[in-house]
Design a protein that fits this description.
This protein is an alpha+beta fold and 500 residues long. It has nine helices and 21 strands. It is globular. Residues 124-133 have a biased composition (Polar residues).
Amino acid sequence: MQATQRTGTPALNGKHFLAGGIVAAGLMAAGVAGAGSAGAAPDDPGSVAHSAAAADSASSGVVSRPSRLSPRGQARKSEEREVDAPQRRVERPRADSDETTGEDSRPQRRDRTPRATTDETARPSRTVTTSTPDEAPDAAPKTDEVTVAPAAFTSARTSATTSSATPDAVLLAAATSTRVTVGSMIVDSLYSMGIRSRRMGSDWLDIPVSAAKAQRWLARRQDIYRDVLSSQPTEPPVGNPPGTSQPKLLWETNFSSREEALKYWGSQTGRWGQSAGENQYYTDGNNITVDADGNLVIQVRRERTPDGLGAPYNYTSARVVTYGKQSIGVGTRVEARIQVPPDSGLLPAFWTVGLEPGHEFDWPRQGEIDIMEIPGFGTPASRSTWTGNIHGPAKGNNGVDVKMDNIDADLGVDLSAGFHTYGMDWYADRIIWRVDGVEVGRVTKAEYEARGGDWTPFSGEWEHYLILNVAVGNPWTGDPSASVPMNAEMKVDWVRAYQL
């Protein structure tokens, strides 16, 4: 995706840069005073209230990102993400072209519509085919990320520092961001003094800086957030022997070729999700490719579908699954490195469905774990919000869906702008979700049973298979605009499973 510049963003020149420097100096001075009087509480939004107010009056271009949007509850899909932080790899800078508003326009969570489980017309094709990605050319080096080496600078913090405990996802996103603006430099500087700004993760004071200055600041940023970066867990080494502290790799797919992909993946075709209000037709391979960088690419197009249905059902997509080839169970960590499309009306997902013997297609009784879903509302908040969930049967009624609330996180970065690692750790009594190595949600057996749910599908009684797909239109995200061209892609670099 081409990076575009925000409309109305002033170009860099001496005048704007001088103004930005004056604002930065003023905020730093105010930050020192605030830290001295308030004890430098990093997570207290009020600790930067005076500084933020001063900046608001100094710049007419200051806007704030809408607050966190609620997750949804759509039938049978979801995904989770896990952290990919060990080597401190960060995405290339992307210019954010999203519009922003000052109001909290978060849509309300919608309950999932239970899927028909016995009506064959609702899901006319439940076949698992082996037409997966076409063979790709020799894999070229990937160019979507930059590795920033740790800086050799000493800390410039002059007041109380923040806790060295594992940070939240917004803080990690700020630490690993490669986008440098006047506003982000000010936020970084405040953090170096022990003050966590409420502007962290927003597009506030979106004034660009020169490439040379950005490169120097990226090195400085590594030093400012060194405690955050050093607290991140390292990636489990491949093939680690049993008995060590790190999980052992069980299997992986790097999508280097058609043959390699077919080892673990096939496709499910037809109108899966139609009973949940979705509009796509999943094809048997026409919407699946492997690109030159070794990514599985799921394409979404508006076109004539194999069953000939007209608008709004004239979309094709793909649903790639490990059904019949590979499965995971309790005691497993699973993760995938994915770049999601930003388009409105789409729902890219990474999720699992249970393999209860004889009831593999009876939802919700067989269980579902949503590892990651990024709802396409077309807003900056939706593009930065991860959602996950579990869906299972109610105690005494296996046809009633029981799910959790508020398993989501606003990560403060546009997730469609680059690759991120989404995953989960699955234990017999709990499920933990991570994005780029940071825990973003968890649910326990006790919590689920307190809501009236039956934990059996998540207890290890049976295993689950994995699904990667992009759905089109549903009561949660709404339908795509018929006047906007649709040719979207979800890219998957790799999928890995580890033994915990």
